[in-house]
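User: Can you write out an input/output pair for a complex, sequences first and structure second?

Assistant: Here is one pair. Inputs:
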Amino acid sequence: MVVVNKHTKIISAATKVFAKKGFFTARISDIAKEAKVADGTIYIYFNNKYDILLSIFEEEIGKIFAKTEILLSEEQDPSRMLQIYVSQYLQAMKKNKYLGEVIQIELRQTNKVIRNYRKNKFSAYTNIISDIIRKGQDQGIYRPDILPDVAKRAFFGALDEVSGVWNISLETHYSVEEITDQILSLFLQGVLLGTNQVK
Amino acid sequence: MVVVNKHTKIISAATKVFAKKGFFTARISDIAKEAKVADGTIYIYFNNKYDILLSIFEEEIGKIFAKTEILLSEEQDPSRMLQIYVSQYLQAMKKNKYLGEVIQIELRQTNKVIRNYRKNKFSAYTNIISDIIRKGQDQGIYRPDILPDVAKRAFFGALDEVSGVWNISLETHYSVEEITDQILSLFLQGVLLGTNQVK
DNA sequence: AGTACATGAATGACTATTCATTCATGTAAT
DNA sequence: ATTACATGAATGAATAGTCATTCATGTACT
């Protein structure tokens, strides 16, 4: 029998259960069952239910964040940077099909712990977008009338909402590459300074 | 003393409390307190906690849906239609500053009841977007390479995410009109067929 | 024979919902 | 105009069920 790290086993069980049921409706016993451990075992590895959720963020989203930052640091062209951002996010969501739902569901749970966490760590992740847009504006290739703080929200909202498509039976025929291209070309054309200006 | 309908009073108290605390963390007694009624009174007007949440959707979102559909039926130009869609949504969210958060938070709560409701009624609302895009493609003014079902998600995701800006202290200086313009010009330029094509 | 890890039944805190009771208002008989 | 009675909306304390968390006990490895 392959012995898998219990911590990891619990994390991935919890991701699945949270995605299916939502944080509050998910029972510790559901997670324990899914991970094939006893309820009490979970408390050897985590302090409490919130801690499991936070760990999912720390570990899973932290990975995306870190990898994206490394890739971006080697790039200067804003549009290529956005391309990296989108594809990293969507590839990660595709790889772990429950993660997207956990982010969607849990990021919005109104809870002091999560709110704080979100404010600090997560907004750093979305601020990457507004920074890229500002860079493009400074280089004179992006529309100066775009408000980076509004655009970053629009952009991340689009990404977030789109990151669930593969779980919907009807729309499974779209690939990561297709979705990445769509979002990117939609947004890039929207943000570029050029001859096709609206208004 | 102005006597307000208790049903309405409870709905708006619940919207506020749900927005602040989230559905699961909100206590019936919080809602009762906010509405200045007794806990038990709530059960005269609603069957249970979920029923309150569903009623918020039915009543508040139903209103936006209905009004948007009427306005759209009098319009033929896809871009003007999108303009109507965005401004109706954002105006409603601005008017009731808690509603946006309730939608953001609660639409994602994984719960059979909500999920079903969302599938049926709510996706009809977002499908308006993909219908408009198809219309624009048929008229030859929108890019034929855009996938309407992906774009609708991107578009609604952007709207949804952006609809909370006025509640964030730092960014309160943006007006509804500004946000509407930003989203719209970003998206319209992104979707239009023209000389500024990406790729 | 000691250490570390794992178990799951028992505990206790929390809160949605219920329901016996109160109270404000309306009706009508005198 | 006053009294008696009826109604049902409103109340909030009590109930009852649900889990997160604990811990006494077990297991296995060194």
